[in-house]
Design brief:
Largest sheet: 6 strands, mixed
Number of strands: 10
Structural class: alpha/beta
Shape: globular
Order of helices and strands: HHEEEHEEHEHHHEHEEE
Number of helices: 8
Helix content: 25-40%
Number of domains: 1
Bound molecules: adenosine-5'-triphosphate
CATH topology: Rossmann fold
Radius of gyration: 19 Å
Strand content: 15-25%
CATH superfamily: P-loop containing nucleotide triphosphate hydrolases
């Protein structure tokens, strides 16, 4: 399967019933503290989903030549990856020889203390940066040497981002924020608007379309960020401390929703965090310290091992 075919496959995978399943799986957003009474969005009409793609609505080719054709190959693979920051004459190695394979459908939590290299790693996983040494493969294709415009195109098709600080554009409305990645993909304006509406309905914010981010609660802003991250139906959702600015209850709603996307739609979820509580959602936990992987805990052993207590050793 080529990268383009893979993108197509993932696009068609976003069936309304699945995404509605995620909504049901998540403890309803309508109960989130601080929500107005107008946020009850039960009864999303799956027949009207804009995520049923006509055959000719294809994504443009990534332009990358695939090197292998094995579907069992990891979705993301890092081989002896180093990231060295240069500050004048001083060099600092933020990542030191990282080897990591992430398979399709994983819920990976990267856990480490402040300064351990989590954000640096996330930038590499998310094609936001390239390694100083070593190789990053996305779907078996070496992306380490790509230029920024090529990386941007891959990011736009393959990865949805969720950040601690939400990273919404403050001067754009809720709806316009969700429309942004679709416009980047040169999506037809009318279809794009339908998709934005649909996603805002799913995250329970249909009545906040015209609000600016400053007119939303923290939890609502993160829900807009989730809707935006899903706009192009990427196979990978990458989240950097997604609950860092939220109270525990609201943060739990966000995590339950991400868990639903993982369980029901097979999205590959990668979260970097220092919060041990998030480990309970993970299929695997990567413990990182001083730029190195300390250990990897596989929580899939013995069937479903999610929600068990993290390995503290
Ligand atoms: N642009 C840069 N130039 C120089 N050093 C950097 C740069 N970015 C990060 N570092 C250093 O690399 C190390 C890892 O930083 P990184 O931001 O990846 O850590 P982190 O685990 O995400 O930390 P936190 O949880 O506090 O966000 C830190 O020591 C940091 O000071």
């Amino acid at each position: 399967m080529t990268l383009t075919e893979m993108i197509e496959t993932f696009k068609t995978k976003l069936s309304p019933s699945k995404i509605i399943g995620s909504l049901e799986k998540a403890a309803s957003f309508n109960d989130e503290p601080g929500n107005g009474s107008g946020e009850n969005d039960q009864g999303v009409d799956e027949k009207n989903s804009p995520y049923i793609y006509p055959a000719d609505n294809s994504v443009k080719s990534s332009g990358i030549t695939r090197t292998t054709q094995n579907e069992k190959d990891p979705l993301i693979k890092l081989t002896d990856v180093w990231k060295i920051y240069q500050m004048g004459e001083i060099e600092f190695a933020a990542l030191k020889g990282i080897n990591l394979e992430i398979c399709e459908g994983e819920f990976l939590v990267v856990l480490g203390p402040s300064g351990s290299g989590k954000s640096t790693l996330m930038n590499l996983l998310g094609c936001l940066d390239t390694p100083s040494e070593g190789t990053v493969y996305l779907n078996s294709e070496d992306i380490s040497g790509l230029d920024e415009s090529e990386l941007a195109r891959i990011r736009g098709q393959m990865i949805g981002f969720i950040f601690q600080s939400f990273n919404l554009i403050p001067t754009l409305s809720t709806e316009e924020n969700v429309l942004l990645p679709l416009e980047f993909q040169e999506e037809d304006r009318e279809i794009a608007r339908k998709k934005a509406s649909y996603l805002l309905e799913i995250v329970g914010l249909s009545d906040k379309k015209k609000n600016l981010p400053s007119q939303l609660s923290g939890g609502q802003r993160q829900r807009v960020a989730i809707a935006r991250s899903l706009a192009v139906n990427p196979p990978i959702i990458l989240a950097d401390e997604p609950t860092g600015n939220l109270d525990t209850k609201t943060g739990d709603y966000i995590l339950e929703f991400l868990d639903g996307l993982h369980e029901r739609e097979g999205k590959t979820i990668i979260i970097v965090t220092h919060d041990l509580d998030l480990v309970k959602y993970a299929t695997r936990v990567v413990y990182i310290r001083d730029g190195e992987i300390e250990k990897i805990e596989d929580r899939r052993k013995n069937g479903s091992s999610k929600k068990k207590e993290p390995d503290m050793n």
